[in-house]
Amino acid sequence: MAVLGVQLIVTLLTISVMQKVTERFSFGKWLLCKTGLTYYLHPSDFELRKLAGIPQPKPKPKPKEVETKRGKNKRKQKEVVDDKTFTVPRNLDIQLESAKIFPRDVLQLKFFTEFVWLIDYCVFVLIVYIITEVYYGLMPKANQEVNLSMIWCLLLIGFALKSLCSVTGLYFRSTEAAAERSMVLVGGSFCFVLALGLLLIDESNLEIGLDAAYSAFNQSASVFLERQTLDSEGPASKLILKLCFAAWCAITGALFIFPGLRISRMHLDALRHCGERSILKVFIYINLVSPFLLCCLWIRPLARHYFTVRVFGSMEAPLMTDLSFDSMRLWLCIFFNLIRIVSAPACFQAYLNLAQERVDKLKKEAGRISNVDLQRKIAIIFYYLCVVGLQFIAPIVLCVGFTLMNKTMGGYGWFGIHHFNPDECNPQQEQKPVTLSNLLPSEEGSLSAVREQWLVAISSIRQIFSYEVYRGIFGFTNWWIQFLSFATVGFGLAYQSFLQDDV
To answer: How many CA atoms lie less than 13 Å away from 310 in the CB half-sphere?
Structure first.
């Protein structure tokens, strides 16, 4: 209980610090305003009339005061409002002016609050998690208490999914986004079918751990129900479980389809605009390849077999043990996602450069376009910067959140020393039966007795949801997010290569 009190103190201090710090410094605002991003200004009506050779409108005369019949009261003539809409040739030679992004400019952006909140909250979650991990390393007995950092991580995952749902909802609220809605539905349906096929793969090849998690949960839950003298046929069947996971895969697939298309476009544009900056090119190429490499780490013949079983050359033992391989996989998930965040400013700038590219594309077209439509095409790029930012950041946040939860809830360790105890999953060991009647405090019972009863109850629940169960749940979700990032970005690269259309 002392450990739980320390965690509560750390949580309260973090919340108070978060409120104070974010008022003066926000990592989300810093990412938008302090990384050298520039946006393009749309031309004014005066500039468009000058370039198109259209006469400028004459200044309006001042309204005159007209006397009424009585000569006392006076009224002004109604001012005639001229129509400010006019057309210009599409091939007009327009050179857009650029300006640096300042904090006052980003306040008007769509989803600005959600973007800043998600990034700032992710930073504080990492701080809380690091402090908790250091404290648990110094106090080994702390693993018996509730880890409050997991609640922070769970909220982080919820905020990221909520942001993706809000961005995807834009396509369903717009009356002109029928094609986008169809693509979201098709992507979700395809991911549902694909997940059903992937869940049929033998886990000796794809080590997601769902079969072992189901067996452990089924065995421990059956014993728990017997001890409660409850009549039950046991948990749901494995088919129902896999259908639920497939439905979750379909939902996330629908949410990831447009972020994948957007990220692939930004990476291709960033490669074109980075010029001779070779270090930036390396980071961008790593971002494109990293989801594929992380997916392969869960394929046993491609990863674990080569690192933990095969002996190379004159070596007497494999490169690493199974425990070290699990730790390496967690480190790589965090490392590659941090590199993706480092390259975020370059990708955001590549997106902002679409304004000039749209103008250059209009120069190759014939016909005319209204000044309002032309200005909207340019201004909307900057207006939706935070929407694009959420599509870029939210998948990274989900990968980090599921990785941290997989490490802690699955009993893994960062340095090859895991907390997983196989005896913990044995539900046949003798324990005091726990029922609702003996959990309620009696008149003669002391506070220590009630605390002991609740500790026994928590211990029984932990036997049902053991490390092995959490390894299956969060191991699969972590791998699926990595696979989905790779699949959607790969589809986006193919889409950009063959169709060459704006996403």
So the answer is: 10
Query: Domain residues for 107?
Result: 2-11+35-51+86-499
DSSP annotation string for 157-202: HHHHHHHHHHHHHHHHH-TT-HHHHHHHHHHHHHHHHHHHHHTTS-
Confidence of residue 220 (pLDDT cuts 50, 70, 90): confident
Strands 65-67 and 74-76: antiparallel
Judge whether 25 lies within some domain.
Answer: no
| Rounded CA separation 157/395 (Å) | 10
Q: Six-digit token pair at 29?
A: 């605002």
Alpha carbons 255 and 169: distance in angstroms, whole number = 10
Under 8 Å between Cβ of 439 and 453: yes
Does 23 map to a domain?
Answer: no
- Residue 229 pLDDT more than 80? no
Of 211-215, 310-314, 354-358, 450-454, the range with the lowest mean pLDDT is 450-454
β-sheet bridge partners, residue 67: 74
List pLDDT tens digits, range 252-289. Answer: 999 999 999 899 989 888 888 887 788 888 888 888 88
CA nearest to 123, candidates 34, 30, 5: 30
- Measured CA to CA, the distance from residue 100 to residue 309 in angstroms comes to 54
Given a contact cutoff of 8 angstroms between Cβ atoms, the answer to whether 395 and 259 are in contact is yes
Count of CB atoms within 10 A of residue 257's CB?
Answer: 25
How many domains would you assign to the chain?
1
Tokens of 451: 């605390």
